[in-house]
């Protein structure tokens, strides 16, 4: 593989202190679970072409919603396929999909950023979402998509270091999956009205899933995944900061600038 190639999600030549097969099985398993969570959260979109909760897609953003939905679905599917390709010995196809993943991530960032702005513009100003007014809540999709981009860049930059590369791609997915998890009523009902909702808002369900992944990785490998733990800690802190920043005057000025 030459230096110009980008391999997303897994390095098929990776060797480390833990079993490569166990690591690939772990990432395949977490990708499968994230795919299920995404389907459950957006089942009304997938099955009926509607928005949550059982609303018609708003005409001004219908196309953006569909394109963004397709992009995120493709991302999680790619995250599922990549370790499966290695497990089945299809390394060449795995490597070919790397650049496609990089382009897809760029498209998701552009679409997500634009959708966050346009959705805010058409949302009634009196609507309250997770305790936030529309302009305040815009911090959630806008900053989340920037965090996603940061993790993807870190993963691509460290594509030759699988111990960094793989957790960065998982963390990138965890950064944007709250949009689905927060729409699963059976999950959000467990912490609505609690301090966890006040501190982490729509992110808390996904953060719990992240802890589960961290523990499962430790059980499989008998060692703490240092990079995943560091990245996850950053995700926890950033999730709380987003909810706090959303109500500040600084964010109000920045959001007003974006909404012009």
Explain what this protein looks like in three dimensions.
The chain has 260 residues and is mainly α. The chain has one domain. Helix content is 72%, strand content 2%. It has 13 helices and two strands; from the N terminus they run ααββααααααααααα. It has a two-stranded antiparallel ribbon with strand order 1-2. Strand 1 and strand 2 form a beta hairpin. The longest helix has 32 residues. It is globular, with a radius of gyration of 18 Å. The N terminus is likely disordered.
Total domain count:
1
- Report the radius of gyration as a whole number of Å: 18 Å
Strand content: under 5%
pLDDT below 50 for ≥5 consecutive residues: which ranges?
Answer: 1-7, 10-18
Strand order of the largest sheet: 1-2
Total strand count, please?
2
* Gross morphology: globular
Helix-strand string = HHEEHHHHHHHHHHH
Cα separation of the termini: 46 Å
Mean pLDDT: 89
Helical proportion? over 70%
Helix count from the secondary structure assignment: 13
Tell me about the largest β-sheet. 2 strands, antiparallel
What structural class results from the helix and strand content? Answer: mainly alpha
List the SSEs and their pairings.
Layout: H1 20-41, H2 43-48, E1 50-51, E2 55-56, H3 62-87, H4 91-122, H5 134-137, H6 139-157, H7 162-176, H8 178-181, H9 185-188, H10 195-200, H11 204-221, H12 226-245, H13 249-258
Antiparallel strand pairs: 1-2
């Amino acid at each position: 593989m030459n230096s110009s190639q980008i391999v997303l999600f897994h390095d098929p030549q990776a060797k480390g202190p833990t079993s490569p097969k166990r690591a690939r099985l772990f990432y395949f398993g977490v990708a499968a679970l994230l795919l299920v969570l995404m389907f459950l959260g957006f089942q009304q979109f997938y099955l009926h072409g509607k928005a949550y909760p059982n609303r018609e897609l708003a005409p001004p953003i219908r196309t953006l919603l569909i394109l963004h939905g397709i992009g995120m679905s493709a991302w999680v599917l790619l995250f599922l396929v990549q370790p499966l390709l290695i497990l089945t010995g299809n390394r060449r196809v795995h490597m070919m999909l790397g650049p496609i993943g990089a382009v897809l991530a760029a498209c998701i960032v552009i679409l997500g950023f634009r959708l966050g702005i346009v959705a805010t513009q058409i949302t009634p100003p009196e609507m309250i979402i997770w305790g936030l007014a529309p302009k305040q809540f815009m911090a959630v999709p806008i900053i989340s998509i920037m965090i996603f981009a940061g993790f993807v860049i870190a993963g691509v930059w460290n594509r030759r270091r699988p111990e960094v590369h793989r957790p960065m791609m998982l963390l990138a997915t965890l950064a944007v999956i709250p949009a689905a998890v927060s729409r699963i009523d059976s999950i959000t009902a467990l912490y609505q009205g609690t301090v966890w909702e006040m501190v982490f808002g729509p992110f808390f369900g996904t953060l719990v899933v992240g802890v589960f992944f961290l523990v499962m990785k430790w059980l499989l490998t008998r060692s703490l995944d240092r990079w995943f733990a560091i990245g996850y800690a950053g995700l926890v802190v950033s999730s709380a900061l987003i909810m706090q920043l959303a109500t500040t005057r600084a964010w109000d000025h920045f959001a007003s600038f974006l909404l012009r």
